[in-house]
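User: Here's a chain of 233 residues. Predict its fold as tokens.
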Amino acid sequence: MTETNTTPTVPDYIGHRSRMKNKVLDKGGTSLTEIELLEVLLMYSIPRKDVKPIAKQLLRKFVTLRNVLNADPGLLADVKGVKETTICLFKTVEAACLQMLAPKIQKETYLDDWDSILDFIRLNLSHKDKECLMVIYLNRKKKVITTSISDTTARANIQIIPSDIVSKCVSAKAAAIILIHNHPSGRPTPSDSDIKNTLFLTDQLATLEIELIDHLIVGNNTVYSIKNRGIVK
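Assistant: Prediction complete.
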């Protein structure tokens, strides 16, 4: 009589999960690569499956872990294997990151480099599902004085009204401003109206010696700079 081996086969991914957890516990989360961090997150939303192929798919589609966490839920759902539980986890981690970032932004309100501007955008606009226009008013040291946000609740498209912005600059005693508006479901390219109003506003501000630092358009996890494209000097 032939003996059969009744010992259950342990899937390879079980050992891999254990190694990932031990690596986090022994060396900390910063010891993991982007794909490993993504795998660990997926382990908790997809408990009985090899998640490495899903992590690879996500990075092929969104390029970076940051983009994965910031991605639109509908786009995430298009990736095979990504269900509601995973999307909920990603959005929760994204919110936690923003909450951790908020005290830093509130304490260090100087927007004098590209990274600080991007952090400010993520904190204030990443959760918006409608097109919004944010104006950031700064003093001569690039410290934030105040901000204003308007959205498309009452109109079809966002509108830049130069006279309103100039008036606010004067009342806030601003030395510079940054314009930011988002395209939640489209490419971050300016319309003819965006360019026309930005150029007009630049001229209006120049007469008061107020600098328009940039007009940024956010969409599809990218940022379009009107100034870097040479449209505004």
